[in-house]
Design a protein that fits this description.
alpha+beta; five-stranded antiparallel sheet; binds nickel (II) ion
């Protein structure tokens, strides 16, 4: 396992749409292991593959509800809403206000290719939506109603 370099804005790789994962092989496992090292070292709530320059539909979420590996995630349903502050490892020292659903149900695959379903809420739902957005080239700053510096 190894830490990978995190891509920062305005790198155009962050605006690209990612490809579906078809091969659940050692290469994918290494990517997932490296992403875990990277997000833990950065103390982030999540990380998406394009943030480590890999254009695949892979992301991880790390919150008090657990550590999640999402491959080819699809949002099946969402309800409610929450408005709050969000940050991103690719947008250093900034925070923005973003409205997200309060609860989401996400279908995905695990690292073996098995179908998994997660029902999450609150901050974890926010993190899921933020990371899944990255797979479509969307950085939260395009959805935020205001962006401020960490120091303020
Ligand atoms: Ni992010």
């Amino acid at each position: 396992m190894a830490k990978r370099l995190i891509v920062k804005v305005p790198d155009p790789i962050l605006t690209k749409k990612c490809r579906t994962v078809d091969n659940f092989d050692g290469r994918l496992w290494t990517l997932l292991d490296d992403m875990k090292d990277t997000v833990k070292a950065a103390n982030g709530a999540g990380l998406a593959a394009p943030q480590v320059a890999v254009l695949k539909r892979v992301c991880v979420v790390d919150t008090e509800d657990g550590y999640f590996e999402l491959i080819n995630p699809v949002v099946k349903s969402q309800s409610g809403s929450q408005t709050g502050l969000e940050g991103c490892l690719s947008v250093p020292k900034k925070y923005g206000t973003v409205t997200r659903p309060m609860k989401v149900t996400v279908l995905a695959q695990d690292r073996d290719g098995n179908e998994v379903k997660y029902k999450v809420k609150g901050f974890t739902a926010r993190a899921f939506m933020h990371e899944i957005d990255h797979l479509d080239g969307i950085v939260y700053t395009s959805k935020a109603t205001d962006i401020s510096d960490e120091s303020k």
